[in-house]
Amino acid sequence: MRKYYICPDGQNQEITECIKEGGCRMPERCLNRHTLTALGVQREKDLNNLVTTTTELLPGTRQAYLKLTKEYAEDPTMLVFLLLGLAMHSNLEKRGGTDQTIVEERLTEDGISGQFDIYEVENDVATLADYKSSGSYMVSKALGVVKEKVIDPTGAVYKTSRKDPNNPDKYLYQKGDPKMVDKFAIDPNKADKLEWTLQLNDYRIKVEKTGLPVHKLQIIAIVRDGGTYLAKNRGLEKNSYIIPIPILPDETVKTYFQTKRTALLHAVQTGEMPPVCSMSERWDDRRCEKFCPVNIHCDHHAKLTEREK
Predict the structure, then answer these.
(1) 21, 122, 205, 289: most buried, per Cβ within 10 A?
(2) Mean of per-residue pLDDT scores for the chain
(3) Could you give the CA distance from residue 262 to residue 295 in angstroms, rounded to a whole number?
(4) Are the C-beta atoms of residues 217 and 129 closer than 8 Å to each other?
(5) Can you give the pTM of this predicted structure?
(6) What SS3 class is residue 84?
(7) Of 281 and 307, more confident
(8) Under DSSP, is residue 118 helix (H, G, I), strand (E, B) or coil?
């Protein structure tokens, strides 16, 4: 469980101490107390009678196990985006549902609990949707954005020549050559959205168990860094996107989650460290290096760190 905040100087402080009046160990707080308190709220887990959640089972089992059994620290300034999700969910709850819309409902099936955001019927089409506040990297991957160099349609040319820094005898382009610009397109075959696909399909199965039909699945992605140069350089011009999610065979989804649940329960009950997360679960080690809050407890991350020295 997250027990510490990482302070601006890189040192850890217990969250319970940090949020006390006058409890900040730094000359000035990185965030106000109200925000730090809200970010510190966590749901207690009974490890002796563990009810797993859909989102908990999506990453690697090792990561899920360590988050349940180890104390870890996170930088609160990097968690602020969670408040956007909390505010969005709170707003959905206040607006409530209608006879054609259901919002924020938690369902449990076969020991796995999951809460979808919106179930809506329009023109006899039932859509199950989930909001995601994600960085442009994730959204671009999920959309299947591809980039290629094309000749500038304005007819612009390079005003100077540039040599290849890796090969001084070669020019990348010469003065007067047609200018090349980035062109972006969406290729559904390149879309990488497996975790979101599994999550939405698990929610779909739970909803259909209640007798309600589901015809479409979609992610409503809000780009956290939308409008920035980085986002635009990844082909994202808008701040939000609706991403269609394919419907998978029920057995594929059930087998995936029950396998992951069995592995997590075994690890918790025995105390045995699960195997290293798969390459896809590790995002080719990108998650290990930057986005796993419990990597300090993982020998795979230690090996990556040693390799970089």
Answers:
(1) 205
(2) 90
(3) 22
(4) yes
(5) 0.85
(6) helix
(7) 281
(8) strand
